[in-house]
Amino acid sequence: KGLNLEGIVRELQHLAQQPSPPIGNMPLTIIADLIVKRYHIDLRQRLPMLAELASGVEELHSSHPAFPKGIADCLKSFGLQLQQHMKREEEILFPLIHQAGEQESAEVEQ
What is the pLDDT of residues 4-31, one digit of tens each? Predict the structure, then answer.
């Protein structure tokens, strides 16, 4: 249904080639912020699009015997699980990391 497979493959290859910033010596607070900005925001935008594309591909090609059945549902389920995981990080883990970082900074200043 008008899917540009070559464009999708190019976009995936482009994303795979983007370098990840070196995080070895970064403070955890910076890493937490980086995860949200670099990965969570992007995933929230792309996951619904990927699920929709998978549904379209499945609709077009599901009659082929080699086509993996249920791939769209699997991707949707994965997306929901990942959304829940990211929410827990942002609402529980990352605030704790920031709180610990603030306490550490306050201790260093004293």
Answer: 778 778 887 887 777 776 777 889 999 9
Predicted confidence band at 104 (pLDDT cuts at 50, 70, 90)? Answer: confident
If you write DSSP's letter for every residue of the chain in order, what string do you get?
A: ----HHHHHHHHHHHHHSPPPP-TTS-HHHHHHHIIIIIIHHHHHHHHHHHHHHHHHHHHHTTSTTS-TTHHHHHHHHHHHHHHHHHHIIIIIHHHHHHHHHHHHHHHH-
Distance CA 103, CA 76 (A): 39
Q: What does each C-alpha distance from 18 to 15, 21, 25, 50, 52 come to in angstroms? A: 5, 9, 20, 19, 24
Say what the pTM is: 0.70
